[in-house]
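Hey Z.,

So I finally got round to the magnesium ion thing we talked about over coffee. Here's the setup:
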Amino acid sequence: VHRTKVRIVEDALDANNTIARANREDFDRHGVAVVNLMSAPGAGKTTLLERALAQPLAGVRAGVLEGDVQGSFDADRLAALHVPVTQLNTDPGFGGECHLDANMVRSAMPAVPLSEIDLLVIENVGNLVCPAEFRVGEDARAMVCSVTEGEDKPLKYPLMFRTCELVVINKIDLLPHLEFDLDLFLYHLDQVNTGVARMLVSARTGEGVERWRDWLVSVTQRAAATVA
Ligand code: MG
Ligand code: ZN
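And the result:
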């Protein structure tokens, strides 16, 4: 019985990967680099994007695909920045899933102005578990972890921390007010993903956000070089 269950999960992930490849081909055809941005709820993904996209990125036209179970609070915030924002809710049609998968992203693609952007940031549903299991056709995966979440997060959610090539450590302006042991957090991070790129930022004050903007530009350039 256990083997059968495992088999079904594998088939579902195979099907997801097939759709993710189709997404990837469509993104490539339009020359669009894609970042899958993940985090726990409230880590600051939207605020970080607000900060990063308040000014145009150097030579990169960005767009956002905003994943939420329901509502458009985050998309409305980002729409004020004059970047194209597409809302993808998992509630109607996808059973209120707590993650985005390749099929959901595919369903939203007709609404994304792919020919007008060079970079699509997909803000995944806030969740540290299943988003890590589903490829959506991205070039890069990044996650945001805030210093309010505790030093043990990498050990509790190793797949998420292992699957990302960048860990953005947010809300560092709060460090003086917290018991958070940054060195211990980084030690745990290296235990699950040795040497993974990390940056310390405060989306609230703007500290470190320039490096996050630079990273978004570099991922776009890297993707363009890979396709060409
Ligand atoms: Mg958000
Ligand atoms: Zn989920």
